[in-house]
Specification:
With 321 residues, this protein is an all-alpha fold. It has 2 domains: 3-62, no CATH class; 80-314, MetI-like fold (Orthogonal Bundle). The chain contains 15 helices and no strands. The chain has helices spanning 3-16, 25-30, 35-62, 79-83, 90-124, 131-139, 146-156, 163-170, 184-209, 214-222, 226-238, 240-255, 259-265, 276-286, 290-314. α10 (214-222) packs antiparallel against α11, α12 runs antiparallel to α15 and α14 (276-286) packs antiparallel against α15 (290-314).
């Protein structure tokens, strides 16, 4: 659409509304078709230099034997990817061991991070005194950095001097090696993560609950549906889109877990909590093998893309036949 055509349409629309005020020629001269692109340019530049650019460069690195300590970085094609599926390669065992640890943590944490915040959000959606204070308390841990949370839980989970074992000792339960034995290490990491990140999903659920009309619950109560019937027939369908968002983002975040394991268990006991991100960090930043580390990261990204698609497919809205 040309500038003159746009100006005519604006003038016609203004007169059609009955204002009778003609559009000034000065305002029309200020109209530039590239103005929206200029306003979007800061975001587009950030997206290009910090997301798309590194993403494409990472693919390029994964196709090379890339050791940034050496001047020569020979092109090897898909060999880094093929090594991840070759049982005789050096990277095969450590990568799939890390993927296994990542899968264990994701399967163990996601149900709690989806269900517990939903229950808390339903409680906080009720009207009671100091509701705003309780909402702030639930969300407060989420603003803490992982370094702070890691130091806190190192003290809480310490076998000899930790507060949790001290409380357990008061009721006659022997000390548990939260960071030195399994499955206690996974229990500690999952509990730590739920406490730390629960507030974010709770706020998302609260926003979704407040969009559900209260008249629907009143009608369900008159029909004798009960609380469980109202939850199943009104709350869950009303939160379908929110649930898809929460399940997807929580799964992706859990699959990228790094700080909790690194700071609290250091990948132990043994290397049972050494997640895929920790393996990539070791491979790239300590062994200087950036090519294979990049290949690992893109394999993880492919798996997470498949999981995300499966979540959308399984939780899609089905129309009755």
């Amino acid at each position: 659409m040309s500038t003159a055509t746009a100006a005519n349409e604006v003038a016609t629309e203004t007169k059609g509304k009955g204002t009778g005020a003609p559009v000034s020629e000065h305002k029309l001269r200020l109209y530039k078709p590239w103005t929206p692109y200029l306003l979007c340019s800061p975001y587009l530049l950030l997206l290009l230099f910090f997301v798309l650019g590194p993403g494409v460069f990472g693919i390029w690195i994964s196709l090379h034997d890339w050791d940034f300590m050496l001047p020569q970085k020979p092109f090897i094609g898909l060999q880094n990817y093929l090594d991840l599926f070759d049982a005789q390669s050096v990277t095969y065992e450590q990568f799939w061991h890390g993927m296994r640890a990542t899968a264990i943590f994701t399967v163990a944490s996601v149900p709690f991070l989806v269900a517990v915040p939903l229950g808390v959000a339903m409680l906080l959606n009720r009207k009671f005194r100091f509701r705003g204070l309780f909402r702030a308390m639930i969300f407060a841990p989420f603003v803490l950095g992982i370094a702070v949370v890691g130091v806190l839980f190192n003290f809480l989970l310490d076998t000899q001097y930790g507060l949790i074992n001290y409380v357990l000792g008061l009721v006659g339960i022997p000390a548990i090696g939260w960071t030195a034995t399994q499955p206690a290490a996974w229990v500690g990491l999952v509990g730590m993560t739920v406490w730390w990140t629960m507030g974010f999903n709770t706020i998302i659920y609260l926003a979704g609950l407040q969009d559900i009309p209260g008249e629907q619950y009143e009608a369900a109560e008159l029909d004798g549906a009960g609380k469980w019937g109202a939850f199943r027939a009104i709350t869950l369908p009303g939160l379908r889109n929110v649930l898809v968002f929460v399940v997807t983002t929580t799964t992706l975040a859990s699959a990228n877990m790094f700080g909790q394991s690194y700071l609290v268990t250091n990948g132990g006991p043994g290397d049972s909590t050494r997640t895929a991100i920790m393996v990539m960090t070791q491979e790239g930043l300590r062994s200087f093998k950036m090519g294979s580390a990049s290949a690992m990261s893109y394999m993880l990204a492919i798996f997470l893309g498949i999981v995300s698609f499966a979540i959308f497919f399984l939780m899609r809205e089905r129309t009755p036949k």
